[in-house]
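User: Here's a structure from my thesis project, written as C-alpha cells. My advisor, Dr. K., wants to see whether a designed sequence matches the one we expressed. Can you design one independently, without my sequence as a hint?
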C-alpha cells in the first residue's frame, strides 16, 4: 500500500514536469513566431508582404552637393556636382537622371561622372539672381543596379553679378613678374620659366643657377631657362626704382589679401582640404594648409578665390590644384604667412603671396605667380605666367 502510494506520487510529479516543459516550449515557439513576423525582410519590406518598409539598405545616397541646398550668390559660370556614397553605374548618370531646371524650364547641360562624383556643366552661363533646382532621380544606380535610395533635389540662387567671390587682389607692378623675391631666386636642374623674374633689395648675384647673360643696356639680363627677362636691384637705372616699386606693390597685395574679413569658409577640413572641390569665396585657416591629393576649384572665368593661411602651405608630391568651369589662375590668391612648398611633380594654379619662402621640388609646376618676401627656390620646375 505504501509503495503503491509513492509510485502514484512519482507518476503525478513526472507528468506535471512534462506538462510544464511542454508549456515553456509552446511559449518559446510562440514568441519566436511573433518576433519573426514583426521583423522587416532583408529588402526593407515586411515578411508578411504588406505595403510598409523603407529603402534598401544597400541603395546609394548623395553625400554632398555643390552648391549646397539653399546656397545663395552662386557663380553663374560654375558647375553643379553631386558626390555619391559609393561607385555608381556610369551609364545611369546622364542628362535624364541628373537635371537642372529654372522653374519648369530645363537647362541644357552636359553630365559626366568620375570618382563617385557626377558633374552637370550647363551649356551656357546661368542667369543672375535666379533660383535653380537640381535633381537626381532614382534612375541613378550603383554598380549592383540598386537605385538611389530616394530622389535628391536641391535649390540654389545665383549672384546678382557675373562674378562670385571676394574683390580681386590688386598686384600692381608686382603683376609684371612671374617670380619675385626680396632675398634670392635660385634654381637647379632643367627649370623652365615663362615670364619675367626679379629680386630686390638683393643684387643679381642672388639669382643663382640661371647662367644670366647681361643685356647691353645693363638694365636686365637673360637666361636660356627664362622666356622673359631677369631684373635686380643693382642693375642700371631705371631698374632699381622699378624693382623697389614692384616689391612695395607685392607687400601691399599681401597685406590686402591677409586683411580681408568675413570669410565664407573658416578652418575648412581642419587645415586639410585634400580631395575637395571648392567654390569661389574667401577661405581662412588659423593654422597651416595641407593638400595631399588633388583638389578642384570650380567656378567661372570672373570668379575669385582668396586663401588666407596663417601657417605653411604644403602641397604633397603628385598632388594638384585643378580648375573647372572656366576658372582662371589670375583670379586665385594663396596668401600664406609661412613657407609655401610644392612636393615632387606637384602642381598649383594661382598667385602665391608668401610672407616667407617659396620652395618647389623636382618637377613641380605652377600656372600663376610666385611672389615671396624672402627667397624662391626651384628644382627642375616649370613656372608659367597666367593668361591676362
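Assistant: Designed independently from the structure alone:
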Amino acid at each position: 500500500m505504501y509503495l503503491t502510494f509513492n509510485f502514484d506520487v512519482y507518476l503525478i510529479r513526472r507528468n506535471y514536469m512534462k506538462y510544464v516543459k511542454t508549456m515553456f516550449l509552446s511559449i518559446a515557439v510562440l514568441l519566436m513566431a511573433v518576433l519573426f513576423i514583426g521583423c522587416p525582410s532583408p529588402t526593407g519590406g515586411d515578411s508578411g508582404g504588406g505595403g510598409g518598409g523603407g529603402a534598401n539598405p544597400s541603395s546609394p545616397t548623395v553625400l554632398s552637393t555643390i552648391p549646397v541646398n539653399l546656397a545663395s550668390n552662386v557663380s553663374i559660370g560654375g558647375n553643379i556636382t553631386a558626390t555619391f556614397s559609393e561607385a555608381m553605374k556610369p551609364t545611369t548618370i546622364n542628362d535624364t537622371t541628373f537635371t537642372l531646371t529654372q522653374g519648369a524650364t530645363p537647362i541644357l547641360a552636359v553630365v559626366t561622372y568620375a570618382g563617385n562624383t557626377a558633374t552637370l556643366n550647363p551649356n551656357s552661363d546661368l542667369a543672375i539672381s535666379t533660383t535653380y533646382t537640381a535633381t537626381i532621380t532614382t534612375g541613378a544606380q550603383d554598380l549592383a543596379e540598386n537605385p538611389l535610395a530616394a530622389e535628391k533635389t536641391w535649390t540654389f540662387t545665383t549672384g546678382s553679378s557675373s562674378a562670385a567671390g571676394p574683390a580681386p587682389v590688386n598686384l600692381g607692378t608686382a603683376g609684371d613678374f612671374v617670380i619675385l623675391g626680396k632675398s634670392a631666386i635660385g634654381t637647379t636642374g632643367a627649370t623652365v620659366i615663362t615670364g619675367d623674374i626679379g629680386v630686390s633689395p638683393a643684387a643679381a648675384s642672388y639669382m643663382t643657377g640661371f647662367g644670366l647673360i647681361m643685356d647691353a643696356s645693363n638694365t636686365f639680363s637673360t637666361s636660356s631657362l627664362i622666356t622673359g627677362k631677369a631684373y635686380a636691384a643693382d642693375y642700371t637705372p631705371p631698374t632699381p626704382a622699378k624693382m623697389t616699386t614692384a616689391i612695395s606693390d607685392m607687400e601691399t597685395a599681401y597685406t590686402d589679401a591677409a586683411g580681408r574679413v568675413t570669410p565664407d569658409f573658416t578652418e575648412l577640413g581642419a587645415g586639410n582640404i585634400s580631395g575637395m572641390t571648392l567654390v569661389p569665396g574667401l577661405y581662412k585657416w588659423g593654422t597651416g594648409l595641407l593638400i595631399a591629393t588633388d583638389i578642384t576649384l570650380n567656378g567661372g572665368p570672373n570668379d575669385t578665390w582668396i586663401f588666407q593661411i596663417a601657417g605653411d602651405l604644403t602641397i604633397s608630391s603628385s598632388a594638384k590644384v585643378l580648375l573647372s568651369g572656366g576658372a582662371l589662375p589670375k583670379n586665385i590668391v594663396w596668401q600664406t604667412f609661412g613657407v609655401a612648398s610644392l612636393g615632387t611633380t606637384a602642381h598649383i594654379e594661382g598667385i602665391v603671396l608668401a610672407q616667407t619662402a617659396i620652395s618647389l621640388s623636382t618637377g613641380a609646376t605652377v600656372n600663376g605667380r610666385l611672389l615671396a618676401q624672402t627667397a624662391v627656390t626651384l628644382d627642375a620646375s616649370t613656372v608659367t605666367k597666367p593668361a591676362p
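When you compare it with your expressed construct, this may help: The chain has three domains: 1-37, 62-158, 172-384.
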